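Exercise (ungraded).
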Amino acid sequence: MKKFFSMMLVCVLVFSLVGCGSKEDTSKGSQGGEEVAKQESSEKGASSSDGEEVTLTAWCWDPSFNGAALQQAEAIYKENNPNVTLEIVDMGKIDLEQKLNTNLASGITKGLPDIVLVNDSNIQKFVKSYPGAFADFTGNLDISQFSSYKTDILTVDGKLYGVPFDIGVTGMFYRRDYLEEAGFTPEDLNNITWDEYIEIGKVIGEKVGVHMMTVNPNEEALISVMLQSAESWYITPENQGNFVGNPVMKETMRLYKEFVDSGISKPVTGWSEFVGSFNAGEVATVVSGVWQIASIMDEPSQSGKWGVAPTPRLDIEGGVNASNEGGSSWFVMDSSENKEAAIDFLVSTIGGSSEFYESFLEDSGGVGSYIPAFDTPAYAKEDTFFAGQKVYEDFANWSTKVPGITLGMYTQEAKDALKNELPGIIQGTDIDAALEDAQKVFEQLVQ
Amino acid sequence: MKSLKEGIRLKNQKSYSLQKSKNINGWIFIGLPTILILLFSFYPMIQSLYLSTQKGIGIVYEFNGLGNYKRLFSDPMFRDAIKNTLIYLVVQVPVMLFLGLVLASMLNIPSLKYRSFFRTAIFLPCVTSLVAYSVLFKSLFSLDGIINKLLMGISVISQPIPWLMDPFWAKVVIILAITWRWTGYNMMFYLAAMQNIDTSIYEAAEIDGASKVAQFTKITVPLLKPIILFTTILSTNGTLQLFDEVVNITGGGPGNATVTISQYIYNLSFAYTPNFGYAATVSYAIVFMVAVLAFIQFKVAGDNDE
């Protein structure tokens, strides 16, 4: 009897595990239902402009940024379409992605919203993993009005899958006071290479006693910025690993090691430490996306002490002083009952209204890739926090120079494959050997 | 005579139908949970076993036979995850259970004052949220965190230890964190079991001249054996499914030095291009490991007194 109970105990424990790995299969039966819903939606969509009440549900992840942007867009859209109301559901970014994944994998479309925000690095992954789940925007949107690197990302197999939203065009935020103390002028930071950056960092370290930058050995944000600035990425457009035989990758790794070896960087382990380092005045520069402005301005006592210079470039062929970090786009679910209305809403606000981008910039500090908006007065505003520099105009200019790349499907896998090698590279492993390892790990990961 | 026979027959019939209705009631009581377990536990298990033979991304997949299982053996990330998880298991579980046992026997000393205070204090970590305490540990062990400041303040170290940036120290932090969180939990089981041990046994041992240590190893531990086995299996199971702490403290880093199997399953499904088939395969690998480990533990500790 005891044996029997023992075995029961084992069974219960063992099988309590399986739940965590099990995912529901797609139910083929629901596809018929989708068809019906689609037909209904086209009828509804057509009638939406006739005044029938339409409520669009949207998922996004930051109520003060992309959520606020949707509210601004709603206000603009309501002037001509008072019948359309938006219901904005705000949740954490990871939660949103997980929810979208599980919903799409289950094949049941009931729980899905009409509009959803998608991080740019996930676009190809979602579109290819769930064919037919997202509405096709081809022909609905005038893509010539957007920075091409952004619309490149949105195009999968020749079809456009959403409306470009915010971008993360990068710049080098720097402390004017530290720079001056070390005997440099802002011009000395203009269009420099990373090697020059390191040299300046050494001088600042000596004379001011602060670090030039932070390095998080477990994060690859800066590496991504450096790769894109020379039109390269962790993977090739064909979704192959791009570690071996990639001069950009090798140069980036050399510099990454140099950041640590030269002593110009302060090691940090997480986001809050990273933000804390520049809010506390511990570093002289922050190379990051334009959205970092909000965090930098969180420390009012540093007003007037900051400036922004172009991103340093890699000293190799194709390296430019502009890059991108992050960014997202709005998608419409193909199963939505209000598909047409949702597309029309996005295209006529976020997809083509300078008015929207002006209020987006003024209220939330957000920058989009809609080129006509760059000429509006909001972008030409001088900012006292940055000692009168027209920072948004600068960022807008740099955004047109960002090299276009394909983020592909396996960016996250490739990042993890590289991350595995980073501690070794910092400790002095041969870079070629480490990159070969990364390539092997990546190939194993994406079978 | 005839009526008597009739009476007996009737009586038998009556008790037979009573028996029958009792049986039916029993089956109804068992039936509902059985159906629920079948539907929500066994069906997904079988479904995920089927899923583990599929290959592809998202909802686009095809039959792959045992290909996913073959892939396991050449997957360096999986190997790292197994290695890390086993390190946690081999180092952390014995330390934690031993600590729990020692703490429990200390709390069981009748002359101890403020017993309920100590008991509550040691058990308290178990009611904290996994995410909340992980975030706290992360900030405690950051480069300019309080632990480094403390150690430097009492001159144990001269340079701050890069706890979360070094593959070795990152594992140490994870082990410290889960030990802090779960020791009290296991201690509670031991304490409850110890209070069921008849004090006269100890009195007899005392009279025979057994030392306290001998009493502990010769009386307490053997009598607690079923509970120790139970907590061992529970902890093994828990450690193999370790997820929250690692994700929140180190995110699996530096590199993949602290990645666990559960985190790898999560990554395969949600962080990477979704490959639910392979994720299901990896989760069956855990099932296999738990089954084997539990079997070994039963063999070593459980069945030899039968």
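Further reading is listed at the end of the chapter. For now, observe: The longest helix of chain B spans residues 2-51. Chain B touches chain A through 67 residues (CB under 8 Å).
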